[in-house]
Amino acid sequence: DGLAVFQILPGASYDYELTHLAETVTVAATGAAITELHAARTRLTVQGASGAPVEGVRVALLRPDSTQMGQRQDTEADGTAAFEILPGLPHIFKVTYRGAEWTSVLQPELTEQILQLEGSTLSLLNIDGQGLAAAKVRLLRADATRTGIHDTTDVNGMATIDVLPGAVHAFEVIFSAGTWTSEALIGGQDTSLTTARTRLVIRDNTGLPFPQMRVDLLVDGRHPNGRRVLTDTTGVAFFDVLPGVAHALRARHLRGEWVSPIQHQADTTTIALQTQQSSLTLTSDVGEPVAGARVTLLTHDSVSTGGRITTAEDGTARFQTLP
Question: According to the model, what pLDDT value does residue 177 have?
Fold first, then answer.
């Protein structure tokens, strides 16, 4: 019931000394049988950059010399952490959130303070200025270790993560199986990253564009990362990649494959590939061309490549193969 009862001598003069949270105050006794002291409530509310309450943020009470009082709690669904303290007790709020700390100015007594987080945004763009979606963005601490917090870029190529005001942090971007780390950012500071572009232009042996050839992006020049495109009507396939990430392009056609040299560029690079013609001419026993005969292209171990052509009027079947 919050009562402390003492037996005293009639007419005695006295005061009460109360100790709470390792702090002591003296309260003058009143002439009444019961002396009342009402505790104060100090409260900190944490809001996101949008103004919405943030639940689960660790808040601790500190003394004026920044030592711990031993009182801490996590904000509730309304974003608030409240503490009962002795009236007039000076104190400081300390907030720990996403690998960083923030401390308030000295609060002389009862207070209701609002702490608003700051949104730090990373924008991922291609060389055309278009946003790149679905890239993973991790929040890093000041020492570049991971906080466990991440977001994914939206259709505009933007990922925003709330941090404490003044918190030093960085972003790690994962895109096309490559990684890139930003410089140190402070509080709500924003940053942007423009990807590099690797283009593969494929022509046949006569110099005409070669459409619909499959091209894969290889990480570290060796391992497919699941990104695959077909050359367009101009014979071009391209990938947007993080600057400086080692990669290569692999073309596949008729069970053959060709791999480009490893690329490390920070801007745009164009690689040219020209196919070779492999032909068979069929003639009769008197040397006349035989048209309309079906010819299948096989691998060196006699497995069908899927390539089938009928000989033309000159008796020739022509295949385009990779170098």
Answer: 77
